[in-house]
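Here we describe the complex-level prediction in full. Unlike the single-chain runs in Section 2.1, the two entities below were treated as one system.
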Amino acid sequence: MSNNPAATARVRAPRWVRVRFPRGAMFGEPGNREKHLAVLRDALGALAAIREPGGHLELPYRWEAAPVMWRGKSLTEGSYS
Amino acid sequence: MKSAWDRRSHAAPVSGHPRTHAAPGSPLQWIPAFRGAYAAWFETARPLIERHDYATAFKTYPWPTFVDSPWTPLETPLTSARLAVVTTGGLYRRGVDRPSDADAPAGDTSYRTIPRATPPAALAIAHSHFAHEVAEADMNAIFPLERLEELVRAGALGDLAPTHYSTMGYATDAALLAETTAPAIASRMRDEGVDVALIVPV
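The structure predicted for the assembly as a whole is:
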C-alpha cells in the first residue's frame, strides 16, 4: 500500500497500489466500511494483476472528509513532505 | 513459503546473519556503505531532530539505493491464500506490550506482534510522527483486520495468519531494520504458513 508514491518507488517495493488518502488513513475515512473493503479488494486483486517487479496500480478513490491536519499542514492525500 | 515477502528482498533478507559482509550480487550489498553514511548523517542530524526540525534533518538522509525490485510470484489463489498484515503505525496492545520509543532521536526498529483476535479497541498507537485522529476513530484505516475478516468470511480471501505485526515508522537505521527486524518478522510468517504480506506504511 502506498500514499507516497515517490517513497514507495524509491525503496523498489515488489508490487504496490497507490491510494490518494492522507497519511495515517491508508484505507480511507474512519467508519467508511464500504470504501475500506473496496480498497482491500482492489489491493488483493493487484496481487494477481501486477506481473512485473515494481509494478503498481493507481486506485480511483478520493478522500471524502475534512482534511487531516498535522503540524499546521492540511492534507487530503499524500504525506507531509 | 509462497510469500510476497520475497527471499531476495532487500527489505527482508531471510538468509545470512546480521552484520556479515554481503557477497557481490547479494541484496545486502547496500548495507556497508549505508552504515558509514548513516553514522555521519546521524551525528549532524541529531541536534536538528532533537529540535524537531525534521525537514532539515532529513534533507541529507542517506537513502539506500537498490538496483531492482524483489519478486515472488503469487502461486496460491487468493481464495486459499493466508495473509498477514504489517503496519508501521507503532501499534501495541495496551497494557500488554511495551510501546515503541517514538521519542528516541534515531527512532525504534523493534516490532510488536498482534494476534488475529485482538479487538481494535485493545490497540494503542506509539508513533508520534503522524496525525492519530483517523486511526483513533477507526483502527481499520491503518490496520484493517476487521475488514479482512469480512473478506475471509465472504470467500474472497483464504485465511488470516494467527499473528500480524507492527513496527513504528519513525526508524532511521535502515540497516538494522533490514538485518534484524524484517528477517525476524519474515521468519515468523514462514513458520505460520503466510502466503501474502500486506504492508501498510504510516
